Amino acid sequence: MIRPVVMLPDPVLGRPCRPVRQLDEVALALAADLVDTMRASSHSVGVAAPQIGVSLRAFCIDVTGHHKARSCHGEVVLFNPVIVETGAGALPPEVGREGCMSVPDLTGDVARAPSLVVQGTTPTGAEVVLEVDAFEARAVQHELDHLDGLLFLDRVVAGERVFRRRRYR
Question: Which listed residue (127, 136, 143, 160) is catalytic?
Fold first, then answer.
C-alpha cells in the first residue's frame, strides 16, 4: 500500500527508531508498504519507515538504473540494518547532492563514506551483508540516518550548501 510521506517538521523524523523484534505480518506489511511508497515516486531510490510514520528500524532502497550507481543490489529491504565497515582503505568522504521526500523543497551537499558494508535482515528472515559503494552507499547512509532521527539537513557540509529543489514535471 502506498503510504503518505511524512514531512518535516513531523517529530517522528527526529526520533531514533525502535528495532524490529519479529518478522510477523506487521513487519512484512511494513516492508511491502516501503517498497510501494518508494515506487510511487519516480525520483525515489529509498524510503525509511519513519518517513511513512513508523518508528521502526527498516528501510528499502533500489538504485537500479541510476546513472551514479556502481554497485547495485536491486530492490533491498532491510530490518535492523547496521554499518559493519566504512570505506575500503579508509577513503575520505565524498560530497554529493542529496534530496529527500520528507524535505521536498530543498537539496543539500552532504559528505558520505564512498563505500561501506551494511548488515541486516531481509523480509524472508535471511541475514545479509552487502558491500555497497558510490550512489548505493550514499542511499544506504541516507536511509540509515532516518532510522537514527537524522535528515540530510543535519549533515550538510555548510549552511550555504542547501539549495531550493528544481521542480520535475
Answer: 143
Q: What is the spatial distance between Cα 108 and Cα 158, in angstroms, rounded to a whole number?
A: 9
Which parts of the chain sit beneath pLDDT 50? 169
**Residue 2 within any structural domain of the chain:** no
* CATH classification of the domain holding 120: 3.90.45.10
Order of strands, sheet of 46-48, starting from the edge strand that comes earlier in the sequence: 46-48, 58-61, 76-86, 115-121, 127-133
What is the structure's pLDDT at 88? 60
Phi, psi of 96 (to 5 degrees): -150, 160
Asked if the structure places residue 4 within a domain, the reply is no
- The confidence score (pLDDT) of residue 169 equals 47
Q: Is 166 exposed, middle or buried (0-12, 13-18, 19+ CB in 10 A)?
A: exposed
Query: Has 160 been annotated as catalytic?
Result: no
The domain in which residue 101 lies consists of 11-164
Instruction: Give the pLDDT of residue 167.
Output: 61
